[in-house]
Amino acid sequence: xxxxxxxxxxxxxxxxxxxxxxxxxxxxxxxxxxxxxxxxxxxxxxxxxxxxxxxxxxxxxxxxxxxxxxxxxxxxxxxxxxxxxxxxxxxxxxxxxxxxxxxxxxxxxxxxxxxxxxxxxxxxxxxxxxxxxxxxxxxxxxxxxxxxxxxxxxxxxxxxxxxxxxxxxxxxxxxxxxxxxxxxxxxxxxxxxxxxxxxxxxxxxxxxxxxxxxxxxxxxxxxxxxxxxxxxxxxxxxxxxxxxxxxxxxxxxxxxxxxxxxxxxxxxxxxxxxxxxxxxxxxxxxxxxxx
Length: 291
What we know:
about 290 residues, mainly alpha, CATH 1.10.630.10, 11 helices, iron, iron ion binding, monooxygenase, heme binding
């Protein structure tokens, strides 16, 4: 399934850029085998939905709390979603919410693993807000201020998607620059997030910059912080992703200490990926906390 997703996103993505004509685009997908992987992936998603639906209908499903199960179970009660809507929502979760979130977690472990002082402060906040191993909930999200600042700084330094491409639906100007109709505009998120004209000490991992609420509001409205893009095309699941990441990390840091094992001079961590970017050669040790 992952092989199919990689084929669709990487090869299909490049073909869509080079072939603007719909006929040539569809033909190129057939020649390079992208359409086969697309059908394989779509059929697999349909199989998963059908299997989970049957399990819930006959009572063999064990009250799973994953998003797909909750969506299907709730729909049995309220019947507000069509099969097509469940399918399309599931596609979003399968495609957009897996590699991006897991890559953010990996980069977070890299950054806090090399900064014991930051990790200690995060853990002190977690122990204060979630005493005695209390599981985090949505209500705790806004109280975990420093943890969320570290997540935002991770997204700034290591956006899971390094760039986005937009097609101009009509000719327009970007300042003095003419953007002709049908042009592909490449927005390099990774560069914007490391621009020293926008961020002080842009190459330094400094969660303190996101502790200022007014500054945080500014970065969310002036296009200086773009890990989820911006405007009407902003990632529809960005809030879910932030809450999910916060809760997962809070739970993990309640129980484990993280240590980076890489020698950053002789054995550095690099970037690996095509559309999304994960840390390559990352070596960490997770040790059970002594309470």
